[in-house]
Amino acid sequence: MINLFYSNKRRAFFVFIFFLHIVFSADAQHFCSELKQNAAAKNLLKANASDFEMEQMEKYDVVFHHLSVKVERTSTYIEGNVLTNALSRIENLDTFVFQLHANLQVDSVLGSNQTKLSFTRGLDIAYVKLDKIYTKNEMLEVRIFYHGTPPSGASAAIGNGFSNKASPTYSNQITWSLSQPYSAYEWWPCKQSLQDKIDSVFISVTTDTSNKVGANGLLQNIELVGGGKHIYNWKTFYPMDYYLLMVTVGQYKEYLDYAKPKNTSDSILIQHYIYSNPLAYSNNKVSIDATKGQLELFSDLFGLYPFSKEKYGHVMAPFSGGMEHQTMTSLGIFNIDLVAHELAHQWFGDNVTCATWKDIWLNEGFATYCEYLNLLYLSTGTNAKQNLFDLHTEAKKGIGSVYVVDTTDVPRIFSSSLTYSKGASSIRVLHYLLGDSLFFEVLKTYQSQFAKGNASTADMNKLVNQLSGKNFNYFFDQWIYGAGFPTYTIQWNQLDSVLAIEVKQQNLQDANNLFKLPLPILVQTNTGDTTIYLNQSSSLESFLVPIKYKVTKIILDENNWILKNQSITYNPGFNGVDEIKSNFGISVFPNPAQNHISVQTDTKDFWTFLLMDMEGKVLQSGKFMGNYELETNSITNGIYLLSFRSANGISQNSKIVIAH
To answer: In order of start, what are the domains of the chain with their CATH numbers?
Structure first.
């Protein structure tokens, strides 16, 4: 969705909200901690409607809309009608319920065969008495005539559902829609349900002949109707969510381009509506032209552009950001990152739409991560590295989970730090855990499996588990449902041919949410570099790593895969043994050992142990509580590792020298 930028091109999300009486419920999903208690949550979206009202709207399935409206670039006044064809989901449906803001007047409602239907309104909800009783799966038809001036309460994610303004830079005055998340009803009669995608939409806009009209799908024709007016007729035959339907009216110049992804023999139309002021094109030509390469890149990474038989394009409107309207993004500014972000939404958000607004990270997190992927593949490595740095910096500002708990709070749904940046930072962790090949296999499968529909966080979790053959529930619990991020405090020293490393992890937002993942450590030596991976399973853990050469420096996560704070210190007094004793109450002696090793602990825990050579081969293993002795008569002289793990998950390692 919308991206706003500071001078350093990172988003600064300002949302002004006037939004009342929203009740929301969601799919039963895989929750952690208290979220797991919501297993009975429903599969309904409730936006400015009571439970009863939403249940009435869920009794039908929208198949088709034809919006036929009059709009000018000089005001937000709108009039016209919306034809709806829908299938009854129940037996004996006799009432059609829809939403339309109280600012807009319903003039009349017609049924099939132009039958005039009676209706009543309760503020934003209207009840239409149908022309007959419809059976399950029977098609009904309703045409709603309406007019009025939409509200200006700034209840959309940015601004209003329907807005009018002149560009402060180029002077073009524009009327445009922006319905996300709950503001479609501010300008047209509709059903605001994420789960009910509209199968196809026709959009006809009558306006002054000096105007052009941008909308979804393909432009079919422009009809001259006299009186200085013409009608733009657009049609789209791809399923689409209510908030992605759009109309924008203004004075534009059209610029066409074509993309040719690897996996298709056909070219894809790219249709730009740029302000008629010639500076609007010349100032933004680089970003406009970049769209082609980005569309080809994302088609390669995620699967063919999902609306390839129609178009992709941009239409300019004077707001500070972008909105991924299906097949035609609305843009206030052109910027390489923003163009990539909104284009990526055509896959993540439009083709596959989040199942509920709780799952919005599946739209915004992936679109934000695609800004990085675009720079990684199509720009310089320096730009991509800076993007990651900025991404993590913004993500650290967020308090709470990526998963949205309270969807009545619109600014929280579109939190820059949580939904966008931490969502993308979490996806980068998943990319790291899966590796390139499997990561992009997951994304392509996600696009094909849930194409033209919806997906939840639980759906993504299940897909990752299936394709990897592993259980990644912990990742979703920690990074999506959980709060915070890790802060690592590391000290290290080299003891002869052993590298001793102590890792302390803290989560300042949730001490119980320990992030368990292999930590990549670049070890620099006087003969070259090598990368080791430390699997941390407790908040404080020591590791002994055999190494032949002089270590000069260690670097945690050189490629910035993990959202984190870190501090690394070389400590020549750290030996990896005494610290273990002081922290966990275990002592190992004598060291060097001859015929036996004595282990003493002042804890009452059960411990398991592994005695390994420096290549990792296990020589002895066992379990004990209290004191224990290991016989070493048959073990040849050398340096060995003695690893302990308690029943509650605490682990520690000791370097042991055996010299008979």
So the answer is: 47-350 (2.60.40.1730), 484-576 (2.60.40.1840), 581-660 (2.60.40.2550)
Give Cα 644 distance to the centre of its chain.
40
Q: Buried (b) or exposed (e) across 364-389, using 16+ Cβ within 10 A?
A: bbbbbbbbbbbbbebeeeebbeebbe
- Of residues 23 and 438, the one with the higher pLDDT is 438
Give the per-residue SS3 of 534-551.
EECCCCEEEEEEECCCCE
Enumerate residues 6+ apart whose C-beta is below 8 A from 341. Answer: 3, 322, 367, 368, 370, 371
Average pLDDT over residues 156-183: 95
For residue 83, the 8-state DSSP code is E
Which pLDDT belongs to residue 28? 29
Q: Tell me what percent of the chain is helix, strand and coil, each rounded to the nearest 5.
A: 25, 35, 40
Pairwise CA distance, residues 187 & 90, whole Å? 28
Q: DSSP letters along 26-79, please?
A: -------GGGGG-TT--S---SSS-HHHHHHHTTEEEEEEEEEEE--TT---EE
Torsion of the alpha carbons at 468, 473, 474 and 479, rounded to the nearest 10: 100
Q: Which helix (H) or strand (E) holds 619?
A: strand 618-624
Q: HSE (CB half, 13 Å, CA atoms) of 553? A: 5
pLDDT band for position 285 (50/70/90)?
Answer: very high
How many other C-beta atoms are found inside a 10 Å radius of the C-beta of residue 585? 12
Looking at every residue in the chain, the average pLDDT score rounds to 89
The phi, psi pair for 523, rounded to 5°, reads -105, 115
On the question of pLDDT at 245 being above 70, the answer is yes
pLDDT confidence band for 648 (50 / 70 / 90) = low
DSSP conformational letter for 349: T
What is d(CA 542, CA 571) in angstroms, rounded to the nearest whole number?
14
Q: What is the DSSP letter of 135?
A: P
For residue 12, the model assigns a pLDDT of 35
Per-residue b or e along 11-33, where b marks 16 or more CB atoms closer than 10 Å to that residue's CB: bebebeeebeebebbbbebbbbe
State the DSSP code for 194: T
Both tokens of 431, joined, read: 């990319």
Longest CA–CA separation in the chain, Å: 106
Q: How far is 385 from 557, CA to CA, in rounded Å?
A: 13
- Which of left, alpha, beta for 144 (phi over 0: left; psi -120 to 50: alpha)? beta
Integer Rg of the chain from CA: 30
Q: Residue 478 in contact with residue 516, Cβ under 8 Å? A: yes
Give CA separation, 198 vs 96, 194, 417, in Å: 16, 10, 32
Write down the pLDDT at residue 584.
Answer: 53
Answer for the pair 599, 589: CB distance below 8 angstroms, yes or no: no
Q: What is the 3-state secondary structure (H, E, C) of 376-439?
A: HHHCCHHHHHHHHHHHHHHHCCCCCECCCCCCCCHHHHCCHHHHHHHHHHHHHHHHHHHCHHHH
CB 64, CB 85: distance < 8 Å: yes
Contact yes or no for 378/407 (Cβ under 8 A)? no
CB 189, CB 144: distance < 8 Å:
yes
